[in-house]
Design a protein that fits this description.
The protein is an alpha/beta fold. It is built from 14 helices and eight strands. It has an eight-stranded parallel beta barrel, surrounded by six helices. α4 runs parallel beside α6. The protein is elongated. 3-methyl-2-oxobutanoic acid binds next to β6.
Amino acid sequence: MTTKHNTAIESKPSTIASCLESPVTLRTLRRWSKEGSKWACLTCYDATTARIMAGAGLPTMLVGDTAAEMILGYDSTIHVPLNFLITLTAAVKRGAPNVFVMGDMRFLSYQVDEASAIQNAGLFLTEGKADAVKLEVDGKWTRRVEAICDAGIATVAHLGSRPQQAKQTGGYTTAGRSANAAKKIVEDAIAMEQAGASMILLEAVPEEVSSAVVEAITLPVIGCGAGTVCHGQVVVMQDLAGMTKWQPSFAQPISSIGDEIANVASSWMRNVSTNNLGKHPYNMREGESELFKERG
Ligand code: KIV
């Protein structure tokens, strides 16, 4: 039996409980955000996990460039190949066809020029079957976001802390800690709305900043370490599942799937070493075994 359960359901059962009986769209997310029905999002990188999480009723998933770290074992998001991310996005959508799936535009897939930005964003929709793309930006990228939106691509503008810039900023940082920096994030959010963005994602900012953004614009705001004022919340699934060595403070483990996987490996090792594989499932056809034994 599948359970339909998520944080959104707990806050507004009547609105969201049956959300995955039909596709979750931007219109759905706008409605929930307007109503104050908080909705959950998790990163996802494969069809099997997508199917399981959709079975739980999770309405939105992000195929993040964190696939570089979670799937490929790199120490930074900038290394994930674009085609690989698009392939994973299509896999997630196949596993969870009614979920609103966002594909993440990798480092340098939108910065180089407008034409390649539109082309690459479009591939997430045409090949990856994504519902929207997300890109890490600030106000300097308003025209680029506008060009992608003008091409008819639903776009999530990721503001605040931007992991793709970590080498330039000297590491992962909290954003918007000074009054000026906070003001700039709010201005950038307004600019992104005017440029046609469909949603804003705010990463690692103080609550005052998120509140000001939520007040200043009409778009749904997804928080990632941005406080409860945001309409939606996203974190890396492997962090919550207890599969990572380190987690940010806003995404502490609520499960221990890492331990469970280790248990599976230990049990399998024990079964293999003791020849405990259960009854063998394959038999030769009647009479063939004797003929086989008589072979010269
Ligand atoms: O790539 C990612 O997973 C992200 C989220 C953590 C917001 O950008």
